[in-house]
Amino acid sequence: IDRLWYEACLEVIRRGDVYNPGARHRVPRLYLINSYVAEHLNKLSIGESFRVTDKLEEKYEILAKQWKTVIVRNVEGFVTKFPASTEVFREGDLTRSPDGNT
Q: Which of 32, 59, 95, 97 has the most CB atoms in a 10 Å sphere around its CB?
């Protein structure tokens, strides 16, 4: 229930233009739970976190997107490039353990 309440509150702020009219395009979409449906890396937005379907032990965050590559960093801060067509699982934004990786 708590996650549904948070999701609803964030969506009202994101869509409602309550606090800053016209800012709905600048408020990020926050995901509260992890996804188990694989999707291409280029479908995710900058700032979203994910895990590669072939290597689930490592968590990454999108820093920048280019035409055929996506620049990401892992939880330790190492920056790498992935092909935009890489299959990934989107991760929740607000659920992190002390090590930052789970």
A: 59
